[in-house]
Amino acid sequence: SARAQGIYLDIVKAAKEEILWIFPTTNAFFRQDKIGAILLAIQAARERNVIVRILVPGNSLIEERVQQLKQYCSDHIIIDVRYIEQMSETKATILVVDRKDSLVMELRDDSKTTFFEAVGLSTYSNSKAGVLSYVAIFENSWRQAELYEQLMKVHEQLKIHDKMQKEFIGIAAHELRNPIQPILGLAEIVKSKIKDAKQCEFLDVIIRNAKRLKRLTEDILDVTKIESQSLDLKKEQFNLSDVITNAMNDIMINIDFLKKSQRNEIKLLYHQPQDIFIQADKGRITQVILNLLSNAVKSTEEGTISVSLEKKEDNDHVVISVKDTGTGIDPEILPR
């Protein structure tokens, strides 16, 4: 009503020390800016050094209008705005002046453009207890908005740092991978031409560790591709049983497996079923199976590692299981 608007503007005009404002929606801010309430607060700040603090839901239009309003202010004038989430439950504009007077205006219809149509019941109070309760609400929301702004700044800094870190890892992995292939190739050529068993053993160490470094750099590159959502899958038809057999053969020449098998501490079992052909990325499937087998070898000091392949009844799914008698997954890590 006109009376509510008049009381509202009079309270703002009368401010001597401080104006605290909570706007529940962006529309509420613009409607009250339209009737001159915000400019009255700026005038109080300029003429009487009144401190003005505003909480309002943020968007680009609000931020643009706030910047325009701040142009009316000089350096010594304190008008501070912080952005909050749009209120969904308590929809009321709260105004507190000099911590002595409060006016709470309920929002009747936020879609309306005029103050009269949008505002419902308005409640004025100069009760100390009532006014201070609204001050407490404001200060609590102000601190939360401040913390949120700080968190967002930290988040942006971390995003920049994370991007730089990923770029560095990607470049480093590429640079590491480039010299590995010549090392492998030349070591295998030299090995094919020498007869001395001791020298062959040394070359085996070089080849094994070069392959290990190659797998590591490829894993790092894969992680960066997954995080940047640029990992491409190359599907082809292949025999899954053959892939498992080849992966097991690779694991059986792994140094950890060789040491344990030579002491008869570990066995690798695979009951090969009929051939099962699937359409998938052969390289990635091989990588997963090798990782599972490698983990099983690391965690199994004594016992067996068994691999099984099963086609489900619906013929649309195939399950590869790797079981070991090792220590198992730590209970704290298992939920993850």
Number of strands: 11
Q: Whole-Å distance between the termini?
A: 58 Å
The radius of gyration over CA amounts to 35 Å
Proportion in helices: 40-55%
Strand content: 15-25%
Name of the CATH homologous superfamily of the largest domain = Endonuclease Chain A
What order do the helices and strands follow? Answer: HEHHEHEEEHEHHEHHEEHEE
* Oligomeric state: single chain
CATH class of the largest domain: Alpha Beta
Shape: elongated
Q: What is the number of helices?
A: 10
How much is the average pLDDT?
Answer: 84
Protein structure class? alpha/beta
Strand numbers in spatial order across the main sheet: 3-2-1-4-5-6
Count of discrete structural domains? 3
Describe the sheet with the most strands: 6 strands, mixed
CATH T-level topology of the largest domain: Endonuclease, Chain A
The assigned CATH architecture of the largest domain is 2-Layer Sandwich
Weakly predicted, low-confidence segments: none
Please describe what this structure looks like.
With 336 residues, the protein is of the alpha/beta class. It has three domains: 2-126, Endonuclease Chain A (Endonuclease, Chain A, 2-Layer Sandwich), CATH 3.30.870; 155-227, Helix Hairpins; 235-324, Heat Shock Protein 90, CATH 3.30.565.10. It is 55% helix and 21% strand. The protein has helices at residues 2-13, 26-34, 37-48, 60-70, 115-118, 128-193, 197-227, 240-252, 255-262, 282-299; strands at residues 18-22, 51-57, 79-84, 92-97, 101-107, 119-125, 235-239, 266-270, 277-281, 303-311, 318-324. The protein has a six-stranded mixed sheet, with helices on both faces. The chain has a three-stranded mixed sheet with strand order 8-10-11. Helix 1 (2-13) runs parallel beside helix 3 (37-48), helix 6 (128-193) runs antiparallel to helix 7 (197-227) and helix 8 crosses helix 10. The longest helix is centred in the middle third of the chain and has 66 residues, at 128-193. The chain is elongated and about 100 Å long. The mean pLDDT is 84.
